[in-house]
Every structure is written in C-alpha cells, then in structure tokens.
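[job 4417] fold queue: 2 targets
>>> target A
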Amino acid sequence: MPGLDVRTLEVAAPSLPCAKVAESALRVLSADSAAVESRLAPDLERRGFTGLPGVSAPLPFRERGVYLVTGGRGGLGSLFARELASRYGATVVLAGRRRPDEESDKVVAEIRAAGGSAEYISMDLGDGGAVRERVDDILARHGSLNGVIHAAGLVRDGAMLGKSPEDAAAVLAPKVAGTAALEEAVAGLDLDVFVAFSSVAGVLGNYGQSDYCFANASLDQSMVRREALCPGRSVSISWSFWGGVGGMPATEAVRKQMRRHMGVEPLEAEDAWRCLTWALASGRPHVIVTKGDLERLSTVFDTEAVAAGEMDGFGAGQDAVAFSTSPLPDDLDNLDEEALAELLRTEIEMSTMELGNHGN
C-alpha cells in the first residue's frame, strides 16, 4: 500500500533471550529500507507427537475446591466446569462478557446437577480493575480460590486489510489483556492450577485470523513464563478444531479438508477431559492437542512419533488423540523449489475453502 512502511521481525522460538529480541527489533526499526524482513532463530527444535497415554500422576484439583472459569457459558468452559463439579464436587464461578440470562442460568443448573456448586458473574476481561474486584469478591464469599481455567476467546475472521482496529482489539482482548488482568488479579495467591485454552492457530497460523493467531501465541507464552515463575501448575493447551463442542466448531467443509490433507479429525466432548489430564500431567507449560492418525500426523507436521511409555508420568496405552510439546522445526528455508511449490499448493487449496466459509 502507498505510504506503508513495513518492517518485520520473526522470532522463531520463545526460548530466545528478551535482550536479544529487543536488540534485533531496534536494528530492524533503524534500518534505512522501508521494507525490512529479519529472522531471529536459535538452533532448530523438533516437535514429537505421542498417542494419548494413560495418566498415573495426580492432578492439581481438590475435592470441594473453588475454581474460576472464564468463557464459562461457552461450550468448552461449561464442559470443563461440569467435569470439575462431577469429579470433585467443586464450586465453580463462571465468568463471561454478558449479563446473567436464561442461558447462563441453564449452565449453572447443569453444573449443580452434576454435583457441584455454581454461579455466573459478568466480567470484562479487558478491564483489569474489574477483574481484580471480581477475584477479591470470590475470595470474600468463598474463602479461597484454588485454580483458574481461562477459556474465553473470540474470533472475527477476515483478511488483514479489511479488519478494523475495533475488531482486532476485540479479538485480542480476552487472550492478551484478559490473561494479563487475570494473572495480576491472582498474584500472591497460592493457586494449584492455571489452565489457559489456546488454539493451534497460534502455532501454525491460519488464513483470515492474524489477530486470533497472535492472541493465542501471546497466551501460550504467558503460560510458559508463568510456569517458570509462579507456584502451582500452569499450562496452555493449543486445541485443534472441535466438532460439536465449543463456540467455534468447524464446518463440514473444513473437516473434509483437514481429513484429506492432514489426517486430522475433530475433537469431541469425550476427548476433552482426557486431554486436559494429559496436559497437566505432562509437566510442559504448552502442549498442542490434535486428533487423527498418529503416523500421518507425524508425517504431515514433519515430526517424530514418540511412544507414550517414554513420557514421564504416563502409563501404557495409546489412541487417536495426539500431542505435541515443543515448537515446530523451522525448515522452510531448507526446502527446495519443488517442495515449496507443493506446500504452497496445498495451503492455497485449504485456505480457499476456509475463507469461503466466512464469506470474505
């Protein structure tokens, strides 16, 4: 676009020191050229997929514990809230953008019927002061807060040039500002667990979702930092696409494309708790969850298939749900022209179908 000064710094892995990233950013900003692309990458890291193993390690949830679930009226938030109620008799405080209504009352009733206590509160994650007030109120009324499940998210898909600042800000708010607000609000509390729900889009990218991809990548790194600095268990789970669960289920057209090109199947409700238990038991601050043919997934993503028995804390047994626990290998620079052409052909064919479903 005329008059647009584009300067891009790609940071290939979060393990790079902040000082090195800042130094590189300053170098890019001070460059004479109006169009600058720079890459900053450490040694290549490989991702390993493993089939879903059995979990023998204890989970960081308490009987009759108190948990805050953001995005609580959504499909994933309410699903895990019901699990906490049925398995632990937990008190679950559901938080969402909207005011209480018949829909939120229905979710609360379902959680209570599952064996726990529940309530719904309206909370603006973009307002740090309001988040602190809500957390303080939970502590005053319930006496403690044992964990957080941060399941809030929003998508407004479209090409970058067509996105308004307001739409982008709305997408970023729950996972960027919202995560920061939650972390600040619980600072000083001895939480047992802080689970953040992310998307594989934050790792692989997705057409029409530049803001959503950034938001999820930011969330992932927040949990990496939190796991290193804070007590308790912190993990970000980058979910693949869902079937009939959640507020952002994949269309049938996208399902067919994913199955055809990658061997990926949609995650379903029965996969959810098992995946969460694995993620918590893995000891990793960030895991990626997808479902399909393990060997084909390993081939498509250029990864290694790792036996479940080789993972600490897991028993034997595998099924179709697969996990990845480290960044993708950054091999694009080493692809020859024919391989790059095939990769581009596949991506364009998939993106045309995906973007068509959003009317953009």
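>>> target B
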Amino acid sequence: MMLATLVLFLFPTLGLAGSSPWVAAWATSPQSAGNGEPEFSLGGQIIRQIVHMWVGGDELRVRISNEYWKIPLQIGAASAGLEESGPNLKETSISDLTFRSRGAVTIPAGKAVWSDPIKVPSWTVQPGSNLAITLYLSKHFDCTTAHKLRIQTNYVRAGDRSWTKAARWPRADNAPSCFVTGVDVKTERSMRVIVGFGDSLTDGDKSTKDANMRWTDALSRCANSSERRSASVINEGIAGARLIYDGSRISSGLGKPAA
C-alpha cells in the first residue's frame, strides 16, 4: 500500500499599488543528489528544458538555482522562447535572458538568482503554452540541483551560445530538470497561487510524459475553465518525499517497507 501525502497551500499574489503583480506560473522543487553520485552532468553543452505555463503574461522572469552544490555555477548564456514542436521554438519568440543586464551569470554555492524581467512586444505567454528555457554551460557541472522525476522531455546538444532554430536537438530522456526551478509572469490583475506539495502522487509518477496530466494540472484546468481565471496552480511535489530524513530514497529505519 502506498501512503500519499497531499498538502495544498493557498497564497495571494502581492503587487505595489498601480503595478502588475508577479505570479508563479510554473515551479518545481529542487532536490540534491544526496550522498550518491549526480545522475546527470553537463559540460560544453546546451540544455533546453520545456515547462508548461498555466498562467500567461507579457513579461516573465526565470529562477535558476545552485542551492545544492558546493561551488559556484557558471551559466554562459540563457534564453527563453515559446515551443513550436519538441525542441523547436517559434523564432520570433526567442529572447535572451540577462542577469543584472549581463548575459552570463555566476551563482554562488547554496544560492539562487532570478533573471531580469523580459518583455517582448512581439509575443506573450499564453495560458496552456509551453515555454522553453535554454542554458549554456561552457564548463563541466554536475546537475546537483535538479528535480529527478522526468515528466517532461528535455533536450541536450553540444554547442555554444547559439540558439538557432535549425540546430539538431537530441532527446535527453535521462535528463532531470537541471537548475531551473521557477518561472513568474506579470498579470493584469492579482491571482491566487495554489501550491501542491506531496509525494509521488503529487509529483506525477506514472503520469503520461509530456501530457500534463498530473492532478495539479487537472486542478488548474478546473480553476481556469472560465474567462475569469482564478488561480495559478504549481506543483512542488517530490516523489518519495519524507519528513524526517534528508533525500527521497528509503534506506533504513522508519519508512522501510516490511519484508
């Protein structure tokens, strides 16, 4: 028998008077490699990660995390764009991400950064669209800050700072979500944010890959089925999550299954 943990948190979004508020449109819980070896490494490569946006807006920012590594993480370049099909993007939507107006960023160990907000007149993020976050890592880094359950297909190729649409992007079915942990958008009005937190049933284990069929996705569809979109639903579940041990693997003691 599987014991599922389900917690819902409901937060209002906050904004300054007269300003559009930032709303969490997508997020995932970062995990560490624990005592084991990192499951994935990158070096001189570009990783393109697809995230599904249940909330839209014409301005966005991306959170990149180095919270579970002991050395600084160097991102040589980064971009965001709307998915056309698979790894291919709508060419007019590709926008460079900057960090304090610079294209590259070094994230200290144990820290995370938000990109500068990007606002592109030629495109907006529509509710239900897929956003591609692309990172270039010129040096070798283990993917130690990641989300391990692979519900969305990611793509990795050798290369440099080029984000060309014509480039061949091999599938990386063994690649977790590396370093990218959140995307916020600016909306015209305040929205509530519902956070789903729990174990594998929340995280989406056994859910159809690339189909966005977790229960949090279903809840988002219900919450935003009318013209008046009422809430952003984000998933912070971790498969195998435990409250009294670090990590997500059952090893010994409490939680060990009976023989």
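[job 4417] complete. Note on B: The chain is about 5% helix and 35% strand.
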